[in-house]
Design brief:
The chain is an alpha/beta fold. The protein has one domain: Nitrilase/N-carbamoyl-D-aminoacid amidohydrolase. 24% of the residues lie in helices and 28% in strands. It contains six helices and 15 strands. A six-stranded mixed beta sheet has the order 5-4-3-2-1-15. It has a six-stranded mixed beta sheet with strand order 6-7-8-10-13-14, covered by helices on one side. A three-stranded antiparallel beta sheet has the order 9-12-11, with helices on one face. Strand 2, helix 2 and strand 3 form a beta-alpha-beta unit. Helix 1 packs parallel to helix 2 and helix 3 packs parallel to helix 4. It is globular.
Length: 302
């Protein structure tokens, strides 16, 4: 049986303001505290340097985008080196004129920027007008798309928010050798929904991700923002981000979870060797009927 191999992971959950410097300072203070408590890997929430600007379509919001490398990645790369941690950050990337992405960036201790992941599934719903802002990530097998990123703490399968609803994304990261699935997230409620509907939504969000952990025999972490962000106009009443950031083990067991409505540093110690132990007993990858799944490449079976 494989010997235990522990990794201490921290999720940084907090509200965001309109002040970029204040948001970065809030994240940094929490990262420092997480490192002080022994975190080796730190995951930040989706688009943590600003408010969630996708509640409306406004060309002015493209001014929030920046290049990679750029000010945010350089700042957090220095912090990762100082604290001897691996950081997974999230930003609005300006790739080129008129070409923007929702991008997660991995910064590894002394190595600096070791990889990035551009969000592949882009939603377009009331209050989540992301297709206006973000181009989906490229799909280049072995290079870009659902490709894990190698770090000093392991091979990370980094995905972003809406990606977390798609089992294909988690599976492809797993098949490429990811040891841990990570999801920076910004998701919340419309206050017009009643309490029962809000509970169903949050429960579905947690359940689908626990299912990815189970179906792939792999630990998983989702870091979601918290706090209420008012809508910019009468068409959108605002979003109450439900926090609840959590870490699950390879059988879907909850190892740690944050509150719904306040800032929190969520720490979890993950035994990375349990994936091997679990997969020997529950060999889903072995028993997949890859010869019979061709229709998964179709939009729908008419």
């Amino acid at each position: 049986m494989s010997k235990s191999r522990y990794l201490t992971l921290a999720l940084i959950q907090h509200p965001c303001s309109t002040d970029r410097a204040d948001n970065i300072a809030t994240s940094e203070a929490a990262i420092r505290e997480a490192a002080r408590q022994g975190a080796e890997l730190v995951l930040l929430q989706e688009l943590h340097t600003s408010r969630y600007f996708c509640q409306q379509e406004s060309s002015d919001n493209f001014d929030l985008a920046e290049t990679i490398p750029g000010p945010t990645t350089e700042h957090f790369a220095r912090l990762a080196a100082e604290l001897d941690v691996v950081l997974v950050t999230s930003l609005f990337e300006r790739r080129g004129s008129g070409l923007y992405h929702n991008t997660a960036v991995v910064l590894d201790r002394q190595q600096g920027l070791v990889g990035q992941y551009r969000k592949m599934h882009i939603p377009d719903d009331p209050g989540f007008f992301e297709k206006y802002y973000f181009t989906p990530g490229d799909h280049v097998p072995g290079q870009q798309g659902f490709e894990p990123i190698d770090t000093s703490v392991g091979r990370l399968g980094v995905l972003v928010c809406w990606d977390q609803w798609f089992p294909e994304a988690a599976r492809l990261m797993t098949l490429a050798g990811a040891e841990l699935l990570l999801y920076p997230t910004a998701i919340g409620w419309d206050d017009n929904d009643d309490a029962d509907e809000q509970a169903r939504q949050r429960d579905a969000w947690i359940t689908v991700q626990r299912s990815h952990a189970i179906a792939n025999g792999i630990p998983l972490a989702a870091c979601n923002r918290t706090g209420f962000e008012a809508g910019p106009n009468k068409q959108c009443s605002g979003i109450r981000f439900w926090g609840s950031s959590f870490v699950a083990g390879p059988q879907g067991e909850i190892l740690a979870q944050g509150p719904q409505d306040v800032a929190e540093i969520i720490l979890a110690k993950i035994d990375m060797a349990r994936t091997e132990q679990v997969r020997r007993v529950w060999p889903y990858l072995r028993d997949r009927r890859i010869d019979a799944y061709g229709d998964l490449l179709k939009r729908y079976r008419d």
